[in-house]
Each structure stands twice: as structure tokens, then as C-alpha cells.
UniProtKB/TrEMBL annotation:
This is DNA-directed RNA polymerase subunit omega. Keywords: DNA-directed RNA polymerase, Transcription. It comes from Mucilaginibacter ginsenosidivorans. The keyword Transcription applies. Belongs to the RNA polymerase subunit omega family. SUPFAM superfamilies: RPB6/omega subunit-like. Its EC number is 2.7.7.6. One of its GO terms (biological process) is DNA-templated transcription. It catalyses: RNA(n) + a ribonucleoside 5'-triphosphate = RNA(n+1) + diphosphate. Transmembrane segments: none annotated. SMART domains: RNA_pol_Rpb6. GO terms for cellular component: DNA-directed RNA polymerase complex. The keyword Transport does not apply. GO terms for molecular function: DNA binding; DNA-directed RNA polymerase activity.
Length: 108
């Protein structure tokens, strides 16, 4: 997820939203929330998988607690992921910018 140059800035903390803004596309606030929640779960799973792949490079085969050491690169990777916006905030931003594809088979 290093393509931050073309991504709009996502708020790093929660902000107050107008609920009428969220149900414009679906005409149902609950449906909008479900869409955003499912997208947030997708983002969270992708970030978690990416982080585990990067950190697995640092895993040692020796499980001796006395030999655990801090790796500066590992710490920097962890700090980078901690500073990333929360998946729910990214999902709301994507929803408001029409970047999420969704469909409701019951409405079709």
C-alpha cells in the first residue's frame, strides 16, 4: 500500500459525519453502514496479511526468549502500520467518493 501519492488524504481520527450524507446512495442508512463495514473488514484483512508477510521475514526459528532482540527495521515497519488510518475511516471515505462497488440482489 505504498501508493499514497494518488490516494486522497483520509482523516487520521474520527470526525463527525452527517447521516443524511451516508444514505444518499442507498436510501437506507443501515445498508450504507453494512457496505462500509464489509469494506472496512476487507481493508483490515488485506493490511493484516501484508503486515504479517513483512514481519515474517524477521521471524527466527529459535524460540528462546533470552535471544529475542529488537530489529530497527521491524520496529519501523510496525510504526508505519500503526500510523495508517483505521480501515473504517478509509471505508467511509471510499464510500463517500463512490469507490466501492456494491449491489443488493434483493433490489434488482
Amino acid at each position: 500500500m505504498n501508493n499514497t501519492a494518488n490516494k486522497p488524504a483520509v482523516a487520521s481520527s474520527t470526525i463527525t459525519r452527517d447521516l443524511r450524507e451516508l444514505d444518499v446512495k442507498t436510501d437506507n442508512i443501515y445498508e450504507s453502514i453494512v457496505i462500509m463495514a464489509k469494506r472496512a473488514n476487507q481493508i483490515s484483512n488485506n493490511v493484516k496479511e501484508e503486515l504479517h508477510q513483512k514481519l515474517s521475514e524477521f521471524a527466527s526459528s529459535n524460540d528462546n526468549l533470552e535471544e529475542v532482540f529488537e530489529n530497527r527495521e521491524q520496529i519501523e515497519i510496525s510504526k508505519h502500520y500503526e500510523k495508517m488510518p483505521k480501515p473504517s475511516l478509509v471505508a467511509v471515505q471510499e464510500f463517500l467518493e463512490d469507490k466501492i462497488y456494491y449491489r443488493n440482489p434483493n433490489k434488482e
